[in-house]
């Protein structure tokens, strides 16, 4: 674009100064200065590999082995066959056994097991999920909910896949609300058996991996009824098919058929009519029935018992968090590599087209998402260490279990949504090529889609987080003098109500209205980023808490909760992101503060934090947490950070450590660069030959110019 | 939640008042009052059907005919076979011929043709796109770029599908930048032939529908070279396969194989080595070559000529806009119907679970998107009328053509992104059921994905819009006294720079700081919504224009454009949404202002406008266009509108007029309601029988209570 408005400078100088700010004069310098800096790719790679590098690397070797790859050309039945065979092969290679007891040949290494499991995503997400059902749900339920005898009888078959198993929890009528499932297991003391029944259509078990075709057994969740009392949901081991694959008497089911993704997994429905199983098939760690029908449990409260039982299965959520990190890394490795090679439009008119990643919009699409996946990866590793501490027994306390569950409920939704977003943005950034199965992005996204729903619907999980945050908030005030509590609250949340008060309290914000507002130093301080991100959670929770309290007094608690549900979920989501930001910040300490790696990763962390703040900028403005001048700086500093990071985009994706065998995206193999080189050589040769045709456009322009000069 | 903070009311009264505002006391009243009102479903349905109701309804009948449905169980090859047969059947039914000349049995009804075409989406998007390639690209290129003789020779074969054809424009190396394609058509006066060549790998034609397998001919785009001059991209008719499906000599190609969606379409690549075609195969409406090789064209400027040629193909973008409306309507019809039947969690403790659409978050996910699709549908109909006016010849002026192209470039990206978003949100709102192919949402989304890329990448199109807006802006100041221009600009854009000035100018905004700020009346005024939405576009364009002007003076125009690219694209996107808002507002005039339909649709329009404003709320705050108090009102009034509209959600989707045969989503057929009724009846009967087991949770709570009272 050229000077189409030619007005006097004097009048507009003042305005222009502001606009220049947006234009970001320092971009070029920043880009230049950062050309000379480099991240230490190996060091960053090691940091990303996390706390179980050997297990993760071993699983990456498996994911890079063609025997485990998805073959896009297969029919539904062939894809299922292949995946079943792969699950068995995986068991032979030993990775899944990491989770199981040593006496069965396992590794008793819960963290390493999950780290390895996550990497299977890039072989084929169907393989990941089918093996997750077999080992992580069916096998893990036997291990965590069963006792010694159960382990002896059923773990070997689960571990070597001689017994493919389903995890029969969800029903058509009840997914998120597991405690309301309809399947019953009624104890018959006469025969010392449980009688399993599906009383109505909505109580059919549904969406069960392995159940559509392969499973010969299942861990079944049902309402345990004995002596006229319903003791709530318990797990039972039940055989469902014979060796020929026919349903056993009383068992029925249907195949779920084609799904939006994960079509290598045979999901299906099951129902039961008076199926009798021995009393000892109750997985009785948390609740048992004696021969005479007397119920006993180490946990008296039926509510707590239910949550403890489900809590043993938290590893599913842990592993989805990590899988969504893998998905994002792969997507960005593909899109950034291609964006660094693909050229389109000759903007300079010098015969060289512009590399996609040199376009402002392209950078803005991909580089903030690079920052996100670094935050997600580092927070996942902390999460995984916490999971390992609890599940290895080293740090297994009720409080840590509760915290782990909150962490899982906050992070799994956050990263799976990040994964869906990044895969789609990467797909669009690769244009038509992005749509081809050969370039992986679309099919990975199809498969990842349901990760936002299974192992706990994202929205429902975030609401659990919200309730926990509200409880913590309430606990803070418990027992405090009412007037004192109110005072505390006023200083904490009043910023939104009366932002003059807020501004007075938050001195440093209020004082920035002068020229110093143009400095980005304040935004770069991690304390300030943290204060802003934390305020977004705390103030919202405080305000929601107060509103609920008031509404409850007025007898409108339920309506109020519903009216505030959406805000509560958003605040919980912001909490998940805050955890990611904190983990990224802690991780920076592992790098030498003088190193270029530290400098560049700090930019990346800043970009992550500021991108979150920018998304909720109106909240910060309305609450008085940011002035309008500082809010504008957030946006312009984000632009500057993106420019600074642009030269490092390739190194930052190289540090993920994925090879062509993992990515398997043709456009990310250098093929685009080769084609461009070939085309350039052709035109070069043509020019040199003297046989190149004239370009009518050039001739036309010259003619017009000549006519103009003549006229 | 119950009163967990019990502080003295006196201290917190003031705060509570603000919070109550958020809680929105008026919700219940609003919901009650609107229970008694109803939209006239038939009247709204007619409004949505738009200007070609008969053609649209006829195509809906086709989409409801099982012969045209997708069969999810088919393999890739079978799916392609089925779709090819369906395209032929479609030609027999006559719908596609609407676009073609009457002397070939066509309807010369461009608007009706597109309306009908859009509805084919719900039969199978693959069928839509394969027929779009055959009739809307291959056939339309012959019609628009060829002349009489070409029509005689080739239109009948295109129309009856005896010649399946490809549209060979895009190359591996050049998609968005068509003018840089590498394929050459060099005229040989000796033989009076064009010699077609693919000089390098990047010049292979790519992603061409029909080219993977079925096409026997193609309209080929190549650089026309004659007498040593390259006259730019022109279209040629070329045969590529013989009757047995083998490539003709010199022609080669590859099948694109599996894609992220649209797998019933056989996309593929083509390349040419010294393939000779007669001189008369040049589609010569806008450029011709005489037997001696002399080039002639009715359009002197090669640049304009290129754009005129491409402009004849704008109907593709028009039809994608409308198809994305159909996609959204289907998604919302499915998700709202299911959300009105599906229940989960007994929140009241009274034994009845809550309907999903009664949850605040669920409403917030679906109801604003209902507002969006109404805006999209009404703006699409205006767009289609404008297209018809230009292409029927009734209003074919260069200015209207140019405006039509800008409209297409603004609306196609806006609606296709809305479609992607709505399909995903609907899918997640339906949980695991949403992931099943049986419920349509995922597979429709897979197919819609590439609608954001083909017929012009959304990002590239929005940049075209941005350039046009900048040109208009520049034109406004052209010839104006520089000082005057600057003054104009200051009053227009200064709001952001110095918002005190802005506030002074925008008196009504500045004056609202008192108690009247609590009134939503101001936000309800369409003039104010329009002023806000327009300001978002105008101010941004003005500021970007000024920055570019200044940067150009400093010799940094290109860098500046790149730095501002992302903002320009966002402003263009906001322009597309503004057009939708305006069309919705105009459409309201068709309804009697006293009618309940008018009242409810006005809420819906308000919700659309305010949702857009809320998304960019930080921009409005920073620019001084909204005060923080009014900004908060935007959010709370949105909540109120959602509550008011909730009782009408089902009527609003019923008005789309799609039947089970169109939606083909099991969960939207009433099956969920049946299952719930069955389950409820089972429990009712169990209770009545006296055989219901006791619930341990109830017993436990009673025990605890008793113990507490005793202690």
TrEMBL record, chains A, B:
<keyword id="KW-0443">Lipid metabolism</keyword>
<dbReference type="Pfam" id="PF01756">
    <property type="entry name" value="ACOX"/>
</dbReference>
<feature type="domain" description="Acyl-CoA oxidase C-terminal">
    <location>
        <begin position="526"/>
        <end position="667"/>
    </location>
</feature>
<dbReference type="GO" id="GO:0055088">
    <property type="term" value="P:lipid homeostasis"/>
</dbReference>
<comment type="similarity">
    <text>Belongs to the acyl-CoA oxidase family.</text>
</comment>
<dbReference type="InterPro" id="IPR009100">
    <property type="entry name" value="AcylCoA_DH/oxidase_NM_dom_sf"/>
</dbReference>
<dbReference type="InterPro" id="IPR036250">
    <property type="entry name" value="AcylCo_DH-like_C"/>
</dbReference>
<dbReference type="InterPro" id="IPR046373">
    <property type="entry name" value="Acyl-CoA_Oxase/DH_mid-dom_sf"/>
</dbReference>
<dbReference type="Pfam" id="PF02771">
    <property type="entry name" value="Acyl-CoA_dh_N"/>
</dbReference>
<dbReference type="Pfam" id="PF02770">
    <property type="entry name" value="Acyl-CoA_dh_M"/>
</dbReference>
<feature type="domain" description="Acyl-CoA oxidase/dehydrogenase middle">
    <location>
        <begin position="166"/>
        <end position="275"/>
    </location>
</feature>
<dbReference type="InterPro" id="IPR013786">
    <property type="entry name" value="AcylCoA_DH/ox_N"/>
</dbReference>
<protein>
    <recommendedName>
        <fullName>acyl-CoA oxidase</fullName>
        <ecNumber>1.3.3.6</ecNumber>
    </recommendedName>
</protein>
<feature type="domain" description="Acyl-CoA oxidase C-alpha1">
    <location>
        <begin position="311"/>
        <end position="470"/>
    </location>
</feature>
<dbReference type="InterPro" id="IPR037069">
    <property type="entry name" value="AcylCoA_DH/ox_N_sf"/>
</dbReference>
<keyword id="KW-0274">FAD</keyword>
<feature type="domain" description="Acyl-CoA dehydrogenase/oxidase N-terminal">
    <location>
        <begin position="84"/>
        <end position="158"/>
    </location>
</feature>
<keyword id="KW-0560">Oxidoreductase</keyword>
<dbReference type="Pfam" id="PF22924">
    <property type="entry name" value="ACOX_C_alpha1"/>
</dbReference>
<keyword id="KW-0285">Flavoprotein</keyword>
<dbReference type="InterPro" id="IPR006091">
    <property type="entry name" value="Acyl-CoA_Oxase/DH_mid-dom"/>
</dbReference>
<dbReference type="InterPro" id="IPR002655">
    <property type="entry name" value="Acyl-CoA_oxidase_C"/>
</dbReference>
<dbReference type="GO" id="GO:0005504">
    <property type="term" value="F:fatty acid binding"/>
</dbReference>
<dbReference type="GO" id="GO:0003997">
    <property type="term" value="F:acyl-CoA oxidase activity"/>
</dbReference>
<dbReference type="GO" id="GO:0071949">
    <property type="term" value="F:FAD binding"/>
</dbReference>
<keyword id="KW-0276">Fatty acid metabolism</keyword>
<dbReference type="InterPro" id="IPR055060">
    <property type="entry name" value="ACOX_C_alpha1"/>
</dbReference>
<dbReference type="GO" id="GO:0033540">
    <property type="term" value="P:fatty acid beta-oxidation using acyl-CoA oxidase"/>
</dbReference>
<keyword id="KW-0576">Peroxisome</keyword>
<dbReference type="InterPro" id="IPR012258">
    <property type="entry name" value="Acyl-CoA_oxidase"/>
</dbReference>
């Amino acid at each position: 674009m050229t000077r189409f408005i030619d007005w006097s400078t004097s009048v507009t100088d003042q305005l222009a100064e502001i606009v220049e700010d947006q234009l970001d004069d320092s971009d070029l310098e920043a880009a230049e200065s950062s050309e000379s800096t480099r991240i230490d790719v190996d060091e960053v790679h090691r940091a990303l590999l996390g706390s179980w590098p050997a297990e993760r690397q071993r699983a990456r070797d498996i994911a890079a082995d063609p025997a485990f790859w998805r073959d896009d050309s297969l029919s539904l039945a062939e894809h299922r066959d292949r995946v079943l065979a792969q699950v068995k092969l995986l068991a032979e290679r030993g990775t899944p056994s990491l989770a199981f007891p040593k006496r069965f040949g396992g590794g008793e290494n819960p963290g390493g097991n999950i780290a390895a499991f996550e990497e299977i995503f890039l072989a084929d997400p169907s393989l990941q999920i089918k093996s997750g059902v077999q080992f992580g749900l069916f096998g893990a339920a036997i291990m965590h909910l069963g006792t010694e005898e159960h382990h002896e009888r059923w773990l070997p078959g689960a571990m070597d896949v001689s017994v493919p198993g389903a995890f029969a929890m969800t029903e058509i009528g009840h997914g998120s609300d597991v405690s309301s499932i309809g399947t019953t297991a009624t104890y018959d003391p006469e025969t010392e058996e449980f009688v399993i029944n599906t009383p109505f259509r909505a109580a059919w078990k549904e969406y069960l991996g392995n159940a559509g075709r392969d499973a010969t057994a299942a861990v079944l969740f049902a309402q345990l009824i004995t002596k006229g009392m319903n003791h709530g949901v318990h797990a039972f081991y039940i055989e469902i098919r014979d060796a020929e694959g026919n349903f056993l008497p009383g068992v029925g089911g249907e195949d779920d058929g084609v799904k939006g993704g994960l079509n290598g997994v045979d999901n299906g429905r099951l129902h039961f009519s008076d199926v009798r199983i021995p009393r000892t098939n109750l997985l009785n760690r948390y609740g048992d029935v004696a021969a005479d029908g007397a119920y006993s449990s180490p946990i008296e409260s039926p509510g707590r018992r239910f949550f403890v039982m489900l809590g043993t299965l938290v590893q599913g959520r842990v592993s989805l968090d990590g899988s969504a990190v893998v998905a994002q890394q792969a997507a960005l490795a593909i899109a950034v590599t291609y964006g660094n090679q693909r050229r389109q439009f000759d903007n300079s008119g010098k015969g060289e087209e512009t590399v996609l990643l040199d376009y402002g919009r392209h950078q803005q699409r991909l580089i903030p998402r690079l920052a996100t996946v670094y935050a997600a990866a580092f927070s996942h590793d902390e999460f995984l260490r916490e999971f390992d501490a609890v599940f290895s027994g080293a740090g297994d306390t009720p409080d840590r279990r509760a915290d782990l569950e909150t962490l899982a409920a906050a992070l799994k939704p956050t990263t799976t949504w990040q994964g869906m977003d990044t895969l789609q943005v990467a797909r669009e950034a690769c244009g038509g090529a992005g749509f081809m199965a050969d370039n992986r992005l679309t099919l990975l996204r199809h498969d990842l889609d349901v990760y936002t729903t299974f192992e706990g619907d994202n929205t429902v999980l975030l609401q659990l987080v919200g309730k926990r945050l509200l409880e913590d908030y309430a606990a803070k005030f418990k027992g405090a003098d009412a007037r004192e509590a109110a005072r505390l609250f006023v200083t904490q949340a009043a910023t939104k109500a009366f932002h003059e008060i807020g501004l007075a309290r938050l001195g440093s914000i209020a004082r920035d209205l002068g020229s110093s507002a143009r400095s980005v130093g304040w935004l770069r301080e991690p304390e300030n980023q943290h204060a802003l991100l934390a305020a977004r959670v705390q103030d919202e929770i405080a305000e929601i808490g107060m509103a609920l309290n008031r509404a409850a007094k007025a007898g409108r608690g339920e309506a109020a909760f519903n009216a505030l549900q959406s805000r509560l979920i958003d605040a919980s989501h912001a909490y998940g992101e805050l955890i990611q930001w904190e983990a990224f910040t802690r991780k920076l300490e592992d790098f030498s503060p003088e190193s270029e790696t530290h400098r560049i990763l700090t930019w990346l962390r800043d970009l992550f934090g500021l991108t979150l703040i920018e998304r909720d900028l109106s909240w910060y403005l309305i609450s008085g947490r940011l002035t309008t001048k500082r809010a504008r700086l957030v946006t312009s500093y984000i632009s500057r950070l993106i420019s600074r990071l642009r030269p490092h985009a390739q190194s930052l994706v190289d540090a993920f450590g994925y090879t062509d065998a993992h990515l398997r995206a043709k456009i990310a193999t250098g093929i685009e660069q080769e084609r461009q080189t070939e085309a350039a050589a052709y035109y070069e040769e043509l020019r040199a030959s003297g046989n190149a045709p004239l370009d009518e456009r050039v001739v036309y322009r010259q003619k017009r110019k000549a006519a103009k000069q003549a006229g």
